[in-house]
Amino acid sequence: MKGTEKHSEKKINEGIYEKNADLGLFKQLLQMVDGNWSDSIQGICDHLHQHFSSLGLTLSVFDSNFNEFIYVSHSIDDTIEKVMVDNNLSTKRKSIMEILTNLYQNHNNLLDEGTFEEKDVEAMALTIFRDPKKAKSILEFLKPLALTVIRSPVAHAQYRCYFHILSNRNLNEANKNVIDNYIPQLEIALEIVFLVRDLYIKATHDGLTKLFDHTQGLVLINREMERVKRNKRSLTLALIMLDLDNFKIINDNYGHQEGDVVLQSVAKLLTDNVRRCDIISRYGGEEFLIALPDTPIKTAKNVIKRLKGSLEKQVFSHEGKDFSVTASFGMAMYDPEKHNDSQSLIKSADIMLYRAKEKGKNRIEC
Known about the structure:
Blueprint: H1 23-32, H2 36-52, E1 56-63, E2 68-76, H3 78-86, H4 93-106, E3 114-116, H5 118-129, H6 132-142, E4 146-152, E5 159-167, H7 173-177, H8 183-204, H9 214-230, E6 237-244, H10 247-254, H11 256-272, E7 279-284, E8 287-293, H12 297-313, E9 315-318, E10 321-324, E11 327-333, H13 342-358, E12 364-365
Parallel strand pairs: 11-12
Antiparallel strand pairs: 1-2, 1-5, 3-4, 4-5, 6-8, 6-11, 7-8, 9-10
């Protein structure tokens, strides 16, 4: 989930889980249990691809809590494979997942059931191949008529399954109903995906805030530090530690349940105001860590100002009484010569946080 998009002042309306799934670990876990279940899913894709005489077909699993694809299987014609290879695109599952994710980020209606016709297909081809002339040439070569989206009624509240079928003909209802014959087999095969995903979430995320927990936060911060080290300091990493001010008073005055609501709201506020590639974790109690990869110090300071301002504007209400919450922020920039591990980097940010508390709270120290 890494990216290089700029920090935006615009808030993103996304779920509290958004931006906090470490798909790398989840995929590793899936690979450990790879077996007949994945062969079964691949067989379904191959059969439907042949039945529909389509150019290509993907079956994807979408996590509605994290708002992202977690699994994809596909079956494509030699013509599609040739186009991808000629354009330096891999036909491996990882590449297909990246393409699907890119399409979804640029075309939010990608998961709407129905048929995307020529104009929509052209727009999606441009998203994939970027060059308008190249996209037009490829479409003229493939001659696709439509992209049909069918949602598979797999019985799981958190996960949705989609078939995307690229074809040179429109699919009718009889064609679509064929998929129903595969549902029992599909549900059994996908059960391992759902199980591994649920276990992964429980093992790596804080139950209350749905952010990464303390341990997983350290794992991911260490990973980012190693990435900077490998690139010989051509990359940067900023680490922010924030602590809610006078949080005990909130618990004492309004109760621990209201305190939990505040923590959940703060977690969502942080999530809404940073990029997908940024790492947010609950460090403990009312303390949070935010790691900003590839972010220079000036930009990092602006991010903190935005977070601080958004928190100050948020109003909480309990039994008719309104109240607000502030936080103190400390920030440190990763220095490979100074910081040996995540704990040493966190200590530098914590020193700055302590200084902010000493100077009166609701402050930023860098």
